[in-house]
Amino acid sequence: MHHRALKRVLVIDDDPDLLAVVTLALTALGGYVVETCDSPFDAVEAARGFGPDLILLDVMMRGLDGFGVLKAMGEAAATSSTPVVFISAHADRRQIAQYESLGCLGVIAKPFDPVALPETLEQLWALHAQLRMEAHQREFEALRRAYIGELAEKMAAMQAAAVALATGGWDRSALESLAHLAHRIAGSSGLYRLSALSRSAGALEEIVNRLLNGPTWPPGSSPADLARLVEAVDRTARTETNLGAGLTLGVAPGIPRRASGV
Predict the structure, then answer these.
(1) Of all residues in the chain, what percent carry a pLDDT higher than 70?
(2) pTM for the model
(3) HEC assignment per residue over the chain
(4) CATH, residue 103
(5) Which of 49, 144, 226, 262 is buried deepest, with most CB atoms within 10 A?
């Protein structure tokens, strides 16, 4: 996953001297676009208006500490996913772990070297990219598992269309339904990295479309032959998803096995 470069940094601190030094370091040495906010009560509005990539937030401020600001940021739609880095004079190992458990990306301990600040932020930004990628992967795998869990139902629908054709003879509506089902499985399975199933369903879709758009209707071949093709798609699904009998489809009773003439 591509992760954009860090460009815009919002610094929130009620100490004007710290704001001046940090702004100079980040603009002159880091090349960032920097906005500052000297009131914790204005922090969310400042972030909403500026649209920072990252927020540098002091922990100890008058009236509302950094924890309160972090909580408010998390509750606001505009800033809920913006990474926050704390600046704190109290940053031993236990406190850093506590801060990070509250949802901040990292902690920069005071006093810090302003010259090294851009490099520190880049390291934290890289960590943010890694965490985002890991979260995306977990979400994708959850969706993939759900998709695989629903494949049996999709394959059963494909079988039903094939059985309707095999038992009732050529029917354009049933054949169009089979083409639609094969098209959906070919597209969606490819998105979920089931490439063999995508190719198999795509080949079935192509064959069915040739039958639908052929020069004669009904086709000269037997509709029972389609059941063997659907069985092949099911076999591919079971193999690629490692679900074994969980996706059993096969040829329905009463449909003869024969060489395909499709």
Answers:
(1) 90
(2) 0.72
(3) CCCCCCCEEEEECCCHHHHHHHHHHHHHHCCCEEEEECCHHHHHHHHHHHCCCEEEEECCCCCCCHHHHHHHHHHCCCCCCCCEEEEECCCCHHHHHHHHHCCCCEEEECCCCHHHHHHHHHHHHHHHHHHHHHHHHHHHHHHHHHHHHHHHHHHHHHHHHHHHHHHHCCCHHHHHHHHHHHHHHHHHHHHCCCHHHHHHHHHHHHHHHHHHCCCCCCCCCCCCHHHHHHHHHHHHHHHHHCCHHHHCCCCCCCCCCCCCCC
(4) 3.40.50.2300
(5) 226
Pair (144, 74) in one structural domain: no
pLDDT tens for 83-101 read 999 998 876 677 777 778 8
Q: How confident is the model at residue 2 (pLDDT cuts 50, 70, 90)?
A: low
Q: Which CATH number do you get for residue 158?
A: 1.20.120
